[in-house]
Design brief:
This protein is of the alpha+beta class and 423 residues long. The protein has a single domain, classed as Cytochrome p450. Helix content is 48%, strand content 11%. It has 16 helices and 16 strands. Strands 1-2-3-4-12-9-5 form a 7-stranded mixed β-sheet. Strand 1 (2-3) and strand 2 form a beta hairpin. The model is unreliable at 1-5 (pLDDT under 50).
Length: 423
């Protein structure tokens, strides 16, 4: 452990470097170091506090008194997240000023309350039927192939298309919507340079134009229906209703949480399924453990490489460390989810373990709004995969795995080869 004269615990790249290829391939040695001596520590190069303790990360995620999700509250907030003249605002700017990441807490609570009917079990059951057809088509296209590449043939194809089906995007606009999905999370990342952020923002603008037109179309309907967009258009609490940009910001939130992250869920789930034969047998015997299997795939697979982002609203203390107003605090959920204080023998995949109190989809008022959709599509994919390829295995026992070493925040698997063994 390194401490300054003031008692501040500090990290450097020799202990934790999210861009290091060795860390991306195998993060567990780094996590062991963090758990042993750096539950809360300041990384000078990254200008952020990293919280690797599960208990403290969960506390930070729930702490709305001292921590904000608004990037505007960061001492190094990018200038193009600030106020612009109305005539200069792009679709991204209008989404951003209405989004769950920027609005004050009272408006955040109101927005989520109005949106809840669109995420009801009834709506999700209807959406599941549409997604099942999509999942079946993905596997129909694979057909009787001897080998599957899980990222390009499964993981990358299902998430954005599933959300497009949920939202009700016309088929002719699905490509535009998928472009929005791939770049939304990137455009909001504080880890990018200004030039990278500007480029990502430019790439999302056609998607916002398309959503604007679609919401206007639903507004004009005498009965917009009981689907996802219909519920949002009709949502009312007294005199309060959702504006067009409130709705677009909610769709954007679902895209960030449900599309980008779900790519990793699919590849991690397939690697876990085929890399743990005894667990695969247990899942076949007890399909009701499917949700627990997905949670364990995310926990043990550690998809993130640098954590979520929060910004200090005032000076306060966390885990014995003094956080200063304006500093970035990263509840490092990937590290926290393998904290041995919370999960005994954390590197072992065990879907029977308790996931009570997990922070896999966040915690507190910012709990992931799209978590149910991610789990629905993950379960559909795993069930269909097991039905079609019961004897599948990883090529060479590892899947000849490779990663995207330049992704802004994910340990994204970009190659996972699977032998189907159907011939």
């Amino acid at each position: 452990m390194t401490a300054t004269l003031s008692g501040r615990v500090t990290l450097d790249d020799s202990i934790f470097n999210p861009e290091d290829h060795a860390f991306i391939r195998d993060p567990y040695p780094t996590f062991r170091r963090l758990h042993a001596g750096y539950p809360v520590a300041w990384h000078d190069r990254l200008q952020a506090w990293f919280v690797s303790s599960h208990e403290l990360a969960a506390a930070a995620l729930r702490d709305t008194e001292h921590l904000s999700i608004r990037i505007d509250d960061w001492e190094y907030a990018p200038p193009n997240y600030g106020q612009k003249a109305e005539s200069e605002k792009t679709g991204f700017d209008r989404m951003w000023e209405h989004s769950l990441w920027t609005i004050p807490r009272d408006k955040h609570i109101r927005l989520r309350r109005l949106a809840m009917p669109a995420f009801s079990r009834t709506v999700m059951e209807k959406i599941e039927v549409r997604i099942k057809d999509l999942v079946n088509k993905v596997f129909d296209d694979i057909g009787q192939a001897d080998e599957i590449e899980a990222y390009s043939q499964i993981g990358r194809l299902i998430p954005a298309a599933a959300i497009a089906r949920m939202v009700g995007i016309p088929r002719e606009n699905e490509a535009v919507f998928e472009g929005l999905a791939w770049h939304m999370a990137e455009a909001q990342s504080p880890n990018l340079s200004q030039a990278e952020r500007d480029a990502a923002m430019a790439r999302v603008l056609p998607g916002f134009e398309m959503l604007e037109a679609l919401v206007r179309e639903y507004r004009a309907m005498k009965d917009p229906g009981d689907g996802f967009l219909g519920q949002l258009v009709k949502a009312q609490d007294g005199d309060a209703r959702l504006s067009d940009w409130d709705i677009i910001s909610l769709v954007s939130a679902v895209l960030v949480a449900g599309a980008d992250t779900s790519i990793d869920l699919h590849t991690l789930a397939l690697r876990a399924l085929l890399g743990n034969p005894e667990q695969k047998a247990l899942l076949r015997e007890k399909p009701e453990l499917g949700d627990a299997f997905l949670l364990e795939s995310l926990r043990q697979g550690v998809p993130g490489k640098s954590g979520l982002h929060r910004y200090a609203l005032s000076d306060f203390e966390l885990g014995g460390q003094r956080i200063r107003k304006g500093q970035r605090v990263c509840p490092f959920y990937s590290a926290a989810n393998v904290d041995p204080q919370q999960y005994p023998d954390p590197e072992r995949f065990d879907m029977s373990r308790s996931h009570e109190g997990n922070i896999l989809f966040g915690a507190g008022p910012h709990f992931c709004i799209g978590n149910m959709l991610a789990r629905v599509q993950g379960l559909l994919m795993i069930r269909e995969f097991m039905a079609r390829f019961p004897d599948a295995e990883l090529v060479d026992g590892t899947g000849d795995i490779d990663y995207d070493y330049h992704h802004h925040n994910a340990r994204r698997i970009t190659r996972l080869r699977i032998k189907t063994n159907i011939h």
